[in-house]
Amino acid sequence: MHGKVLGKFINLQGFAQPVAVFLGIPFAKPPLGPLRFTPPQPAEPWSFVKNATSYPPMCSQDPTAGQFLSELCTNRKEDIPLKFSEDCLYLNIYTPADLAKKSRLPVMVWIHGGALLLGGASTYDGLPLAAHENVVVVTIQYRLGIWGFFSTGDEHSRGNWGHLDQLAALRWVQDNIASFGGNPGSVTIFGQSAGGESVSVLVFSPLSKNLFHRAISESGVALTPGLVEKGNIKPLAEVGPPLEVPTLLALCSLIHRGHSCCGF
């Protein structure tokens, strides 16, 4: 564990055991500046008690579409304020475990959908699942769109940072979930739409070995055609200068290539 966190207890109607909720725990360094378009790096430790009672910002995306998707897909009864930032590599934990008894409950890690362009961990409330099924629920975030899946197909930008973020979150779970009453030896990953695609990618990837034990892919697989886009030069030219992506020379060298955005 990188440091102490302060969460909150929430009671679900009909259940005597409250669920401990921890929001916005960082599992990687903010992917800013030189860390943009690079694999995620482990989060820095902290010496204070981090307040984990407010929702983290969602990863950068179209705010109008992101708000619409969140309201359309959420299982929450209340509205939550949505913010968007490149500093977004956070996860939420919902645990019904009696931490004083050092419980070891099964863990379910939710990977949100949204076409790899939209969505966030906080759209999905893990409280009902945690309370009803007596499992520790973790909802994770990962870089989206060009920040998470742009690829030049060479050393300039290998891509799939979003899937690497998911792996980093799963490593964090292995290292730390026992502190929240979870069993790192019983981890199920599950996701819907692009989250289901991500689940199947993680199943195929040798990088995910020993990070989870079961997988549920809901309405999305790694070979879904709509999640693959060819012809990256136009979007790169549009966002390259403000994001400090490639030099003009590197851009010119890519014009004759047509690599997939999502090749893993």
From TrEMBL:
From the UniProt record, list the coiled-coil ranges.
Answer: none
Q: Name one GO molecular function term.
A: hydrolase activity
Kind of enzyme, top EC level? hydrolase
- Which keywords describe this protein according to UniProt? Hydrolase
In this chain the Carboxylesterase type B domain maps to 3-235
Q: In the Enzyme Commission scheme, what number(s) does this protein have?
A: 3.1.1.-
* Family matches, as SUPFAM superfamilies: alpha/beta-Hydrolases
Extract the PROSITE patterns matched here. Answer: CARBOXYLESTERASE_B_1, CARBOXYLESTERASE_B_2
Hydrolase as UniProt keyword: yes
**Record-linked InterPro entries:** AB_hydrolase_fold, CarbesteraseB, Carboxylesterase_B_AS, Carboxylesterase_B_CS, Type-B_Carboxylest/Lipase
> Which PANTHER family does the annotation name?
CARBOXYLESTERASE
Family the UniProt entry places it in: Belongs to the type-B carboxylesterase/lipase family.
The protein, known as: Carboxylic ester hydrolase
Organism listed in the record: Sapajus apella (Brown-capped capuchin)
What lineage does the source organism belong to?
Answer: Eukaryota, Metazoa, Chordata, Craniata, Vertebrata
